[in-house]
Amino acid sequence: MCRRLIIGSEGQLGTELSRFLSNKYDSDSIILTDIREESKSELIYHKLDAINYKELELIVKRYDIEEIYHLAAILSAKGEENPKMTWDLNMTSLFNVLELAKNKIVKKVFWPSSISVFGNTSPKNNTNQFCVMEPDTIYGISKLSGERWCEYYNIKYGTDIRSLRFPGIISYNTLPGGGTTDYAVEIFYSYIRKENYKCFLKKDTLLPMLFIDDAIESIDKIMTVNRNKLSIKSSYNLSGFSVSPDMISNILIEKDPSFIVSFKPDFRQDIADSWPNSINDDHAKKDWGWVAKFDLDKTVNSMVKNLKIKI
Ligand code: AKB
Description:
Rossmann fold; seven-stranded parallel sheet; 17% strand
């Protein structure tokens, strides 16, 4: 039985991925880890500090883990508060996983990169897989460096590390924490709670986004496709749809005209301005048949429906 380990199981992506994997495979074969004391899930759980190699190796060997999904990271906005800590966590935890793969202790790894690898000097629209990349945040710098290390390990040591450059992820079960795209989740919570929402980005800030179901499907697809099909050894551009705060708020206001959204940009505006408006994901489409199923309307409908049930 192939056992899979999730690092960062309690976060926005981890919560959904652990649910998905435990439905798809034997639930005893999915092992969860996070820095938090306890898990929200019923699956096997261990508290783990991902920068501690020995602790990680112990868990991997104890359960004979074959695949790691390494999702733990400090995101773009939070990362600017403590750049050194962000670099240490994001890079050391990745190195720990890369070493496990290099030493053939695990067979396959998934590690998310992000659109934060692009910066002010990258093209803004339909941003290509290969272009100028000078990230302006420490999170982006750690993701771009991480991508280069993944490619290096894949080519030099024959490891099987697979990666996607995620845009902002819109989800209803777990809130994101510390990102620049977080507004696109928060706004729905305010709407459902009938509270006013103060957005920290300007209303016309266009950013690439992806609905959570598509994000999970993309991870499943890239992890199960034949390795020979993966021409990109670093990280694939991935696209869902592009959206601005006023595009989301206009749809919500149309549903409920009493919903009030105001805009008060803070330091996150500069980060958002340095990222692309839209992403070209032709390589993902060609190599492993990627197609996003959720556009803006489907995402809004699903968020409203699911949050109404949840809250
Ligand atoms: C963030 O906003 O930092 C993340 C990301 C786009 O990687 N959601």
